[in-house]
Design brief:
This protein is mainly beta. The chain has one domain: Jelly Rolls, CATH 2.60.120.200. 4% of the residues lie in helices and 40% in strands. It contains two helices and 20 strands. The strands form three sheets. Strands 1, 2, 5, 6, 8, 13, 14, 15 and 17 form a nine-stranded antiparallel beta sheet that branches. Strands 3, 4, 7, 9, 10, 11, 12, 16 and 18 form a nine-stranded mixed beta sheet that branches. A hairpin with a 2-residue loop joins strand 14 and strand 15. The protein is globular. The termini are far apart.
Length: 300
C-alpha cells in the first residue's frame, strides 16, 4: 500500500514541491528539503523524460545484458526482470534504467522503496555515477544479493573503496525503504528511516553531480553468484517509488553519532577494503579493482 506522502507527491504539479520531513518515508528530520526528482511509477510506460534504458555506465554487466523489454510498469510499480535468456554474448537478460542525460544532482537525499528478487545470482541496485559519464566514483546506495535476502549493502568504488551491510528484515517478501543522505563531508545510510551507517572517509570522492540508475544484474562474478538449480525464474526487482531531494539551508538538528540499531537480531558492519567483485569503467567490465593497474578487462 502506498504511503500518504506518496499520494501527496502524485498530486504535485512538478518537482518544485517543498516538504518537511515527518515520517520514515521522507527525508531525514534534520532540515527542510526540496523534492527535485521523483517517480511513483503509476503509469503504463516508463517516463522517457526521466529515464533511459541501460546500466549506469552504459555497458553490459558481468553476466547479463540489459533488455529494454524487461523494464515494465505494472500495478503502480516499476519491475525490472531477470531471466535465463542469452543475448549480446551474455547468458542472462537483466534490466536497468538510468537518469543519465536527463537528471543529475550534487548532494541531497535519495531513497527508493523496494522489494528484491530471491535466489542465487541476482543483484539489485540503486547506483550513482558521475553525470559526465566518467569513472570513478561509482556509489551503490542500494545493493543486494539474492542469496542474502535480509542483508542489503552499500559500496563506493573510488580511489579508496569502502562498503558495509546490515542484517534485518527479509527484503524479498515485503517492501523496505533504503535511502542515503549525501553531503560534502559525509554519507549516511538508512534502512526504513533508521540510520545504519555513517561514513566520513569517502564523501570527498563524491563531490560532483551524479546521475542515478536502477539495475538488476544476473550472474557473472563470484560476488553476485551464478544462478543454480534452486534459482527461481524470473527474478523481479520491484520499485514502488524513487525520490530525490536537495537540502534547503543548514541542518537544524545534529544526527546521532552512530547507527541506531533496530530491534531484534540487528548487525551493523563496515569495511574498508578492495571490492570483492568487479566494476564498470569506460564501457568495460573489470574483474576487480586489482585489475585497474593492469587495465585488462575480464569481459567485453
Amino acid at each position: 500500500m502506498r504511503t500518504a506522502i506518496g499520494r501527496t507527491l502524485r498530486a504535485a504539479m512538478g518537482p518544485a514541491l517543498c516538504l518537511a520531513a515527518s515520517s520514515h518515508a521522507a527525508p531525514p528530520a534534520n532540515s527542510a528539503w526540496k523534492l527535485t526528482f521523483f517517480d511513483e511509477f503509476d503509469g503504463t510506460a516508463l517516463d522517457a523524460s526521466k529515464w533511459g534504458n541501460g546500466y549506469a555506465l552504459g555497458a553490459t554487466g558481468p553476466g547479463s545484458w540489459p533488455d529494454p523489454a524487461n523494464v515494465r510498469l505494472e500495478g503502480g510499480s516499476l519491475k525490472l526482470i531477470g531471466e535465463k535468456r542469452s543475448g549480446q554474448g551474455k547468458t542472462y537478460a537483466g534490466a536497468a534504467v538510468t537518469t543519465r542525460g536527463k537528471f543529475s544532482q550534487m548532494y541531497g537525499y535519495m531513497e527508493a522503496r523496494i522489494k528484491v528478487p530471491n535466489g542465487k545470482g541476482f543483484s539489485a541496485k540503486m547506483t550513482g555515477t558521475k553525470a559526465d559519464g566518467g569513472y570513478p566514483p561509482w556509489l551503490d546506495i542500494i545493493e543486494t544479493r539474492g542469496e542474502e535476502p535480509n542483508h542489503p549493502y552499500w559500496y563506493l568504488h573510488a580511489a579508496a573503496e569502502a562498503g558495509g551491510g546490515w542484517t534485518g528484515a527479509d527484503m524479498t517478501t515485503e517492501f523496505h525503504t533504503l535511502g542515503t543522505e549525501w553531503n560534502a563531508d559525509e554519507l549516511i545510510f538508512y534502512v526504513d528511516g533508521v540510520i545504519k551507517l555513517r561514513d566520513k572517509t569517502q564523501a570527498a570522492n563524491c563531490r560532483m553531480a551524479m546521475c542515478w540508475a536502477l539495475e538488476l544484474m544476473v550472474g557473472g562474478d563470484s560476488w553476485i553468484g551464478i544462478p543454480d538449480a534452486g534459482t527461481p525464474w524470473p527474478g523481479v526487482y520491484e520499485i514502488d517509488y524513487v525520490r530525490i531531494y536537495s537540502r534547503q539551508g543548514p541542518a537544524t538538528a545534529v544526527l546521532p553519532a552512530g547507527p541506531q540499531r533496530m530491534t531484534g537480531t540487528e548487525k551493523t558492519r563496515a569495511q574498508v577494503s578492495p571490492s570483492p567483485f568487479g566494476y564498470l569503467a569506460n564501457g568495460r567490465w573489470f574483474a576487480s579493482p586489482r585489475a585497474r593497474k593492469a587495465a585488462k578487462p575480464a569481459g567485453p
